[in-house]
Each structure stands twice: as C-alpha cells, then as structure tokens.
Amino acid sequence: MASSQTFASSPNPVSLETRFPSPLALILILFLSAFLLFVAIKPSKPTKALLPPTPHGAWPLIGHLPQFISAAKAHRLHLLVEQWIREYGKEEGLVRVRVAGVEVVHVGKDEAVKAIFDKASAFTSERPRWIVSNELMTGKWNVLLLSASDKRWKNQRKVINSTLTSIPRADAGVPILERESLAFLHEVAHDPGVAKDSKKIMASIARYTYSAFAQQTFGLEVPQYATSDVLHYIHETGLAQILGTLPGAFLVDVFNFLDYLPLFLKPWERAAKERFRRDVAFSCERMKRIKKLMQEGYMPDSMLARALTDEKRLGFESEEEAAYLSLNLIIGAADTSQMSTWSFLEAMLLNPEIQKKAQNEIDSVVGNRVPMWSDFEQIPYVRCMMKEVWRWHPPVTLGHPHITTREIQFKGYVIPKGMRIQLNAWAIGRDPKRHKDPERFWPERFEGDATTPQQSANLVDPTQRDHFAFGAGRRICPGINVAERSLAIAMMRILWAFDVRPSPTASHPLNPRNWPGDPPGNPSDEMPVVLEPRSEERVKAIDEAWSREQTGHPRRGTME
Ligand code: HEM
Ligand SMILES: *[C@@H]1O[C@H](CO)[C@@H](O)[C@H](O)[C@H]1NC(C)=O
Fold it and tell me: Within 10 Å of residue 496's Cβ, how many Cβ atoms?
C-alpha cells in the first residue's frame, strides 16, 4: 500500500529531496495556515470525559503539532507515538493526538485492533473525506483512498482479489517474481558497481518489485534500472497522493466550504485535476501497448488484459479506470515490498549469526540450484525471519487512516462517530507484553508458527497473530498473499547467492540511527550494505538459470 511512499527509492542518483521542496516544510506551512483559520472557526467539542487519553503538552488549538513536527524531522515519529501509547494508553492501547484541527486515535494494542478494526469493521472501514487526494487527484478511482460506501471500492477490491491476489492468482504470479528476482541476482553478481553501492542495490531491488507488479497489473515490464524514468514517475505520483492525505496538507479538507469557491480561487483543484489527467494519460498510453500486443496474438496474464477481454470489463466503469487502477496497484505493491526487502537486509547486516544460520538452512534444502518459491515450505526458519521482519519493521509504521461511522466503545472508552483511527503496527510489534525483548531481531520467537500472513491475520485470538503490518478489518491489505511470495523469494535468493556485509566505509559499531529513513522506523538507502557472491558455483548457477530464462520467454512490452 502506498503509505510508505516517503522514502527515496529513485533509481536516479538525484534524491527526491533535491528535486522537490521538502515535504515537511510544505506540511509545516500548510499546518500553520490551517491553524490560523482554525483560530477563527473553532468547532464545538463533545464532552471529553470518556474519550481516549490525550498526551500532556498539547498547545491550545494546534494541539500536538510542535511535538509532531520535531519528531518527524528527526525521523522519530514512530517512537513519539509509541511512547505516548505506552505512557497514556496503558492497558487499552488508545491515545488521542490532536494535530492542527485533526484528531486521531492511534490504536496500539492487539486486543484493541481486534475489537475496533475487526469486530466493529462495519463501522470502522471508512476513509476520511479527502477532497483533493480522493476526489480530484485520483478521480475516485484509487481503491486505497475511496470511500467504503462507494460501490467502486467494493468492485475494485473484488477484481484485485479475483485477478491478482487470491491464492491461485498469487501462485500464478510466482514465475514473474522468480524471473524478476533472478534479474536482480544477475545484476548484482555481474555488476560490482551495484553490489558495492547500497543506493544501487536499493534501486535494483526497486526495479525487481516495480517490474514484477507492472507485469501482474498491466502486463509490461521495467527492464532497466539505471535509465528508468518510469520508476521515478510512479513513485512520485504515489508520494503526492499520500502527502495529500496528511492532516493540514490541504485546507479544503479541514474546511470543506472552501470547495464551493469558484475554480479560479482553487489552485489546489487545478493542480490536482491536472495530475489526474496526466496519470490517466500515462496509464492509457501503456494500455495501448497491451492492446497492440494482444492484437499481435500475445496475451499477458495481467489484471488489465483480463479486464480488456472480459465482456463486462470486470465491472470497471471504463477501460481508463482499469488502466489507472493498474498504475495505483504498482504504487501500493512495489514500495512496500521493496522496503520489506531493504529492512530484511538491515536485519542481516546487524545479525551475522542469524544470517549464517539461515544460509545453512537454505543450503541444506536447495544446494547449488537457485531457490524457488516451492522451497519455502521446507525452510521454516525463513518463514520465521519473514514474520520477524514485518514485526520489527512494518513498512506502514503508523497505519493508514480510517474513520468511524458510528460511536465505538472499547473498555470504557468512547470513540465518537467521525473520529480518525489508525492502527499502529510499530507499537504493537514493540509491545513488551506481546514480544519478549522487542528490540531484538530474533526469528526464533516465531518457531513453530507455520501460519501464512493471511491465516495469522484471520486468527480469532489477536494475541496469537504474528504482526499487524497489513492492517486489519475490511480494509486489510488485499495484497497479503502476493507480498508473502515476493518477500520469501527475495529472502531465500539473496541469502543463497550472497553474503550481506557492511560496506568497507561503514563506521563501527554499526548503528541504525546513522541511516534513518522514511517512513520512520525504516532504513534509508544510506545504510552501508554490500552484497558479496558466496561462490563461483552460485554465480554459475545464476548465469545458467538466467540464460534459460532468456530463451524460454515470450515477447513482452515495456513500461518505459
Ligand atoms: C510488504 C508488503 C505490503 C505491506 C506491508 C502492505 C501494507 C498495507 C497496509 C497497512 C494497508 C492499509 C490497510 C488499512 O487501510 O488499514 C494496505 C492497503 C492496500 N494494499 Fe498493501 N501492503 C503490501 C503489499 C501490497 C501488495 C503486493 C499489493 C497488491 C498486489 C497491495 C495492495 C494494497 C491495496 C490495493 C490497499 C488498499 C486497500 C483498501 O483501502 O481497501 N499491498 N497495504
Ligand atoms: C478471493 O478469491 C478466492 C479465489 O477465487 C476466493 O476463494 C475468496 O473467497 C476471495 N476472497 C474475497 C475476500 O473475496
């Protein structure tokens, strides 16, 4: 999902920071303007007696904005909210934070998630109204931002499941994941410029995930990492959508009456509609390539190709909607998967004994051939590592906002109708009552738990669930089975092919505080990591598999 867009995964050496004004500065300015208006028009508040506790130190009107901004600047937002949850949330795990006119209840305990997001899901699956992000910038065509009462939300989720992410469809996508991850191995094994440069390793992982999901959604690949403007374009689109959902990003989302102004007084509307047009045009241009390939007798197994050949267009309003959703699904799928692989590399970098143990387990099952998804069940330790990566570093740290459509009660507290609520996967993963020694990367804590992420999310007892990286309730990440396959394949193959080592220039002892990333709680591409092929034999196995792949594969189109 796209909440993890705020890290630079640009394949270009130019980072996002240097290309765009700092998002933080923008948010600050917008918050402050929101504040000024808020002073003028303060809505009346219901009684606070039973509301979830709110941290001390709130300022009049702007609430916790100053604390929020300084924590965000230091990449410590996740730690601030976690600390509030521990200090004020106590048993219930609820804390109410106010930021410039927007109030959010952060949910930081497994039982609270079960009660609020799962059991009360009929009343907790709505999104806030985002005039700019949902209605203008994405034209009510992006499942992630759509209102739960919009019939398009239901249809898009149904289509995503039936064409892309159900277990049979996720299995059908495995050859694509295997091919693209093999391209990654091949690139690292033969280009020392990549293997010895963490930024390029990150970019090469990005290409793997973007290309895999572009094939599953559109049916087109992203062949080159070094020259790809497409990666940058897609990433930037997702970033704009997500920044637009932050409290205070657009005044009109706080003061809806501004929406009634004439168009010439609404520069945000013109800009957002322009972006929508551009992104639809981008998607339709790629759709044309698919159509051409299909006319030539080549049928990619993708969501879009299925929509184009279905009599009822799979319930999409138009071909354009299907093409545009394909773009948005790449955004949701690729960055989160890339970040998971990157956090996994951090865990291996910091824990060489665990790396060695996992390599031994993998070697004993697969020997000298390239590992396949079908090996995963035979290597339970890798499943444990996967659970531990998502517990330790959930890519969507603070959750994606929902709002309540009815008053919700939980352990004596009242969450009023219309309140923003966010599931805090980070804090739950660090709850010392759930996980002994929560800071420690320790896959053995999951020994004996063979559940898939889907099965674990469905458990009746939330204290037995592995982690909350995919959310909960009706809005739970629909990509969970695909995410599982993509990370499992990446983990097995990286450890089988390479040793994960600190770069020669790293300063010791290694300290993750030296490479804080976005979203907070995830490593940046400053992480000093290099990959070293483990043996000539393994490189030869990669080369042979790669040349087989080259000869056996049908023609494909590209996203470029
Ligand atoms: C490591 C990988 C991933 C993680 C950690 C992740 C996490 C999430 C989270 C936390 C949400 C928000 C849930 C909520 O609103 O409460 C979400 C939503 C979503 N994810 Fe994922 N995701 C991942 C991969 C994927 C993949 C591979 C796909 C598609 C193939 C995908 C598609 C989506 C979509 C479409 C939504 C929006 C659902 C809705 O609003 O109804 N995600 N994801
Ligand atoms: C997704 O599709 C699978 C297989 O087609 C089906 O069994 C399952 O019930 C679907 N899930 C949802 C949530 O629609």
Answer: 24
Query: Residue 411, SS3?
Result: coil
Atom of ligand 1 nearest to the CA of 482: 27
In the chain, which stretches have pLDDT less than 70?
A: 1-49, 225-227, 554-555
Amino acid code (one letter) for 533: P
Rounded to the nearest angstrom, the distance between the alpha carbon of 166 and the centre of ligand 2 is 6
DSSP string, 242-256: HHTTSTTS-HHHHSG
DSSP letters, 26-82, are: HHHHHHHHHHHHHHHSPPP----TTSPP--S-PBTTTBTHHHHHHHHHTT-HHHHHH
pLDDT of residue 8: 32
Q: State pLDDT tens for residues 457-496.
A: 999 999 999 999 999 999 999 999 999 999 999 999 999 9
Name beta bridge partners: 538: none
Q: What is the pLDDT of residue 223?
A: 85
> Using a 6 Å CB cutoff, which residues line ligand 1?
1, 143-144, 157, 160, 164-165, 329, 332-333, 336-337, 340, 395-396, 399-400, 423, 469-471, 475-479, 482-483
Task: State the pTM of this model.
Answer: 0.92
Q: Which of 87, 79, 77 is nearest to 54 (CA)?
A: 87
Select from 45, 552, 31 the least CA-distant residue to 243.
31
Cβ density class 124-140: b for 16+ within 10 Å, e for less? bbbbbebbbbbbbbbbb
| Tokens of residue 435, six digits | 């996980």
Is 446:454 a contact under the CB 8 Å cutoff? no
pLDDT of residue 101: 82
CA of 408 to the centre of ligand 2 (A): 29
Quote the ligand 1 centre to 1 CA distance (angstroms): 4
Instruction: Please tell me the predicted confidence (pLDDT) of residue 15.
Output: 34
Strands (E), 229-308: none
